[in-house]
């Protein structure tokens, strides 16, 4: 017989994708191995801390404004549509992240917290940025002829 609890625990633990669970106050309560690899914090360093440890300072206000809207409304578009945001590693280096979230509610419908599924898309982001720059250069060249 299949033990789905064991399978679910192994999926969270063994996946390369970062999985983070934070309570409605933004405190990290789950930090898997993928999160350790992506952000450079061990679970012991991240658990019990604010999500601020992975959000660049200049983006925190926008993050928390959006977080508060989700906590009030119980709705987000980022469950089905991934969001691209900047992130910061333990060493202070920045990266581009893509993530989706799942809102977890108790039996009465009150939000308990949010699970986020994150991946590093820095290489893809940098490539697209370089292509946009190159396209603008080529457009300027064409306009000059």
Automatic annotation (TrEMBL):
Domain called PAS: residue spans: 10-74
Positions of the PAC domain: 81-133
Entry keyword annotation includes Transferase: yes
One GO MF term attached to the UniProt entry: transferase activity
Keywords associated with the record: Transferase
Domain of life assignment: Bacteria
EC number, UniProt record: 2.7.3.-
TM ranges: none
PROSITE patterns: PAC (PS50113), PAS (PS50112)
Pfam families reported for this sequence: PAS_4
UniProt cross-references to InterPro entries, sorted A to Z: PAS, PAS-assoc_C, PAS-like_dom_sf, PAS_4
Protein name stated in the entry: PAS/PAC domain
Native source species: Corynebacterium glutamicum (strain ATCC 13032 / DSM 20300 / JCM 1318 / BCRC 11384 / CCUG 27702 / LMG 3730 / NBRC 12168 / NCIMB 10025 / NRRL B-2784 / 534)
């Amino acid at each position: 017989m299949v033990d789905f609890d064991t399978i679910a625990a192994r999926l969270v633990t063994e996946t390369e994708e970062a999985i983070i669970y934070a309570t409605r106050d933004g405190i990290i309560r789950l930090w898997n191995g993928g999160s350790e690899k992506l952000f450079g914090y061990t679970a012991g360093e991240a658990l019990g801390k604010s999500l601020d440890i992975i959000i660049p300072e200049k983006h925190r206000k926008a993050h928390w404004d959006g977080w508060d809207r989700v906590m009030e409304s119980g709705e987000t578009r980022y469950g089905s549509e991934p969001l691209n945001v900047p992130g910061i590693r333990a060493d202070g280096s920045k990266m581009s992240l893509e993530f989706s979230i799942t809102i977890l509610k108790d039996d009465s419908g009150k939000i308990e917290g949010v699970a986020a599924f994150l991946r590093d898309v820095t290489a893809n982001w940098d490539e697209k940025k370089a292509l946009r720059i190159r396209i603008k250069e080529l457009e300027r060249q064409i306009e000059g002829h």
